[in-house]
Amino acid sequence: MPSGSTFDHAVRTAAPRRGGDHAPEKQAITRRVIASRKSVVCHGPAALLAAVAEDGSHAYAGYRITAFTNEEEQMAGNADKAKWLLQDRLTEAGLTVRVGEPFAPHVEVDRNLVTGQNPASSGPLADELLKKLG
To answer: Where is this region: Disordered (predicted)?
Structure first.
């Protein structure tokens, strides 16, 4: 797996449901990317839950993001089946979760992080990434 210094952008799509991706090597790469101030593009915001800094704080605390919302989970019939909801977990980790209309495109850009709320956000998210690539 490459180090954070060998690429300019990371794209994360559809992280494993409710579990995030807590693989230590992926956490380490995420920390290196943040430290080097390179862009992280993430449409699978559950992966952000694994981004814990070496001091134990959350690496994205204070960032403004979007993710699949509690309302969308409810409308999709998944909320009652889930052990936890992504919007709640991200908020608990100290991220500011902004939401758009359910199942409509919504993208947030904060520093080096671009997030999309749902699959309908894929196109606008790609447009934001292209802007960052210049």
So the answer is: 1-25
